[in-house]
């Protein structure tokens, strides 16, 4: 295409300069310029993903990532950097395979991933007939005899009608979280789910599941890609299918680990503004969008503020949370410690929806504070950030809600995230430099406003 | 990340149901559902990019693409499909290479692409010292003696500060379009430009250049990737560099070609609403985002309307324009013909900014019509479409402006487009299914409103 005849009305800018403080508008521009031109987030993400790669809680790679984060926070100019101790669960995948027997009696392997935190088959073959259900309602209608001794296959698809894919993910989430419990309680041998994916490829996606406290037998739970799921459903309509699952995943107790924290000291007081993401990832792919992006964006804000010599009133603290994916131990410990140490937190923002082009900021705070942030909307509009109506906050900062801390989460464009989330496809090449830096810009601009206003 | 605790306020929906017609809001939803669930645009784009690939005007591939478009429009349910004859320029690239001589006298090849429509070196080596300038101002300051007989290298970088990359592209565009004329007039042997790219990789990007009518000697013009450009600039600061260019590109006259048109007849009258993109591409990559996306999105709208049995008042016409990239002959011929045939066109929209997640609609029309479209904004908000302030229209429909036709262009998110535009990187895998379908949804929704209102 050509843009030779582009004519863009300076509507937004005009509106801002007269209705909002000119200084804020200029400072927004300065923050954007610094990050878009000199930002190091993209190069940092390349290091994290390529030199360390995926980094599940409890793994050696995760501890390597904590050392890397300490170094990066120091390089960015933090006045103080430390590791916060936290006990995390250790879950290990090990070797795993899933096969189905075709009409000629030949075994055919399916691409699969055991779900995070699930128990495996202890290296033994679990062989059984597959019983297919579309959803929980169909499952509930089946008699116990149809489930007992079988491998239950739930093929509940991601609902493409939702515009925010986060809503579709929420809608399908119970199958990943709970299907093993539902089926285990009724005597099934194992459970297969369709991956929580917005794509139509054959990539399997992992993610956290849990057993109920009253589950007497913890059955193995695995995910297959959307394509395999649809093919399997089709096959099951005309014939019986036997599956053979062999997996070694298991919980291996707990281990001492760390969140990583760095801050620039407040010039006026010691109250704290938190910006963060989670440093851990699943044990597949490179944890690039989930949530390497959030980590490097948070560090980027500290770097930019320091470089620009912004005189922050309050302490601005970057928190790289441990263990978001399979326990939220980092987030819980952080909230516990601020209570214990009697620290005053005036605001916390997390980003864990990927480093995609930003569209808004979700707010969880009092109606008064919410309205105040929404009143800054015109300052954000020239940066494509317009949606301040959503109401949710990151998993790691939610434990601060009962302490009365106003919370927020960056709302990046959601269309591509669940194509790659928790899978081997979540790699550096899926991240765009400008999109990543714009996300950091939005959060930096919000922190600038809150630091001067609260 | 987890979305388990997502809480989304039904603010938008509430607002719409009471302030706008409930029926419009429901019809918007129906159009979105049909396209997001049953849309074939993504599969069609796979066919176009993988079975045909790039398709420069005048090439056999382009003519193959016209047959494919006829077939797809028929499959989509068009009442009438035809080809519109148009003479297009034929430009051919041929073999080409650019080398620079290092300090040891060894030649090193640089990745390069001749600029579209440029003349080459007729297969002969053009060897000369490189003279570096950052921009036009620096070039103007150089004495003729410093330019004559040299190869001039312009390293004007894409300005990362613009939030809309289209503006950065516009800002840098004159170097691609005019550098050969500037340098040729002052006796240079050839010109090298930094590619118009938002990335920092080494991918060269082509695109249209032109000679001035009074250029006595048409010198060769080539582009190199950003990385090579920066390295070359660095080298030139400490030493002389000799370059050797050999290229065979040339204009080869004209050829009869075709735009492809398909329509569903209006139920009330014969006035026409146009939706389109351009079927041609540059001779590199696969023309996926530029503008295969626009073609399959336009066809998608026709398919969805037909499938849904929407009773369109006016004729809805898909135009797959010929020769946008290097001549705009298709767009000019189309405007010429509607005047000749005395057809009444009430609206035309083009999309040529890629099949990325939509953010708005740019409008070129009377203030009254503009205001009316802007008054529909709340209907679009739940789909992430909020920006109705920009004022430009696609290159192919611009020739309709003097005829008084109200024009629009889809405004997709611009962050990733110029990383791949006009390069070997513009391939199918850069397109996301949901983003592509959402773009079609936005245009379909707008056409629904205009069809019932105008």
Automatic annotation (TrEMBL), chains A, B:
Entry keywords, A to Z: Carboxypeptidase, Endoplasmic reticulum, Glycoprotein, Golgi apparatus, Hydrolase, Lysosome, Metal-binding, Metalloprotease, Protease, Secreted, Signal, Zinc, Zymogen
UniProt entry tagged with the keyword Hydrolase: yes
InterPro entries: CPQ, PA_dom_sf, Peptidase_M28
Subunit and interaction comment: Homodimer. The monomeric form is inactive while the homodimer is active.
Domain (Peptidase M28) ranges: 260-436
Location in the cell: Endoplasmic reticulum; Golgi apparatus; Lysosome; Secreted
Protein name as it appears in the record: Carboxypeptidase Q
Superkingdom per UniProt: Bacteria
Short name of one Pfam family: Peptidase_M28
Organism: Kaistella gelatinilytica
